[in-house]
Amino acid sequence: MQITVNGETEELQEPAVNLSRLLELRRVESPEMVAVQLNGEFVDMTNYPTTFLQAGDDVDFLYFMGGGSS
Amino acid sequence: MIDFTEEQLERYSRHILLDDVGVAGQEKLLQAKVIIVGAGGLGSPAALYLAAAGVGTIGIVDSDVVEVSNLQRQIAHFSADIGAAKVESAAAKMQAINPDVEVRTYREYLCAANIRKILAGYDFVIDGTDNFPTKFLVNDACVFLNIPFSHGGILRFNGQTMTVVPGQTACYRCSFRSPPPPDAVPSCAQAGVLGAVAGMLGTIQAAEALKHITGAGELLTNTLLTFDARTMAFRRIRLKKQESCPLCGPHPVITELADVERTVCTVQ
Hints:
heterodimer, B: Rossmann fold
């Protein structure tokens, strides 16, 4: 099944991948430092386990980025 | 209409030559008020470029003093400024670049109790803060005060920025609901940052302010621009105003400004 992650096509080898699993597959070390957008909609972290990906889905990981002043 | 002096016509000639700016745009810049939150990595280049551009009134907020570890990227501060208030150090350089500009310094730590008073009356806000509680506070205050602003963040070789026009385009909370847990957050102090990345991001933020004021081009709204300086790959992530946004959505749960944990607040 093909999905798009961060603008790039990705082939999912496993069936029934939810957002929690996708974060693992993508080796996101600190999921709490990422906001997830699925097909342009914000997904709350508490809904990752129940949000299963469908072919053609478009997922973006938005990283919290501070920096600046000090 | 402003009567430009000969010196001003010369100083701003490269703006005036631009079809999208011209004399009218330069006049708008000279009458505009922009405030920069944080006189550090992002705020330094933004402050220098806005002063050079002739933005008439520039506010700058920071409670810190210049330290030697700042100098690798906070280009408004020089070695001789170590120990000086960052706002005073930055203001001196801004005035030196362009005496047309009035610089207003706020040597304060922004918090829920003082932010409205400080930001009110400005046309555009540049967020150059280093911590998430203040980033969220700036977003919330700008939404409540209806002031467009530029969000900016940098870490290691990466940068991200978006422009928010409250009520019209996605706000920071539309995508980043609430500050991450404090123990999860690597700061520039812990993780490091390539100095020039601060300049890349801060000048994008300054350009957004200049575009907003002059009306030139299209603002970086409903878009998170991210880049990785290791490969110089830039990416635009489409964002949209979320119905579920706790701040700017149709059913807001955040209706007043509040300090988030770890925001130390001392009101003078």
